[in-house]
Amino acid sequence: MAFSLPTNFATGGQFAAADANAIDAAINAIVNGATAAFVATSESTSSTTYTDLATTTDQVTVNIGSSGKALVFLSADISAAASGGVASMGFALSGANSQAASDSQRITGSFYTIGGGVAFLLTGLAAGSTTFKAKYKSVGATGTAANRRIAVIPFP
Prior knowledge:
Helix content: 10-25%
Mean pLDDT: 90
Structural class: mainly beta
Shape: elongated
Number of domains: 1
Number of helices: 1
Radius of gyration: 19 Å
Distance between the termini: 6 Å
Number of strands: 9
Low-confidence stretches: none
CATH class: Mainly Beta
Largest sheet: 5 strands, antiparallel
CATH topology: Jelly Rolls
């Protein structure tokens, strides 16, 4: 169900039970639909294209609502083994939606380990079950990622 409220509340107007139910349903969908995965293990890659690391449980599956929107959070301690190297963590989508990992939606680390995180609002998604899978690459040096987290909040 799409979340919507009356377009206009008037002074002295009534807030209908249907309005309260719509708000309740939207809040429950957001709270109950949020999911996350965490991998503490430090793992590395030398791949210059996005790939999986050895532990592949860094993925979540959520049900995208009719709004076609989801908020994706990535975080990790990420580094490259040499000066000038850049290690990246992105994500791919599969299921009702399909999207390859992209440099436009990633976090990066260089020679020094950086503990960082970022959020991306995705719009225009198809409604349905979608898996969000963390993907990794490194250019110029071996990349390492630890304490990897991916979390997704689908909107109704």
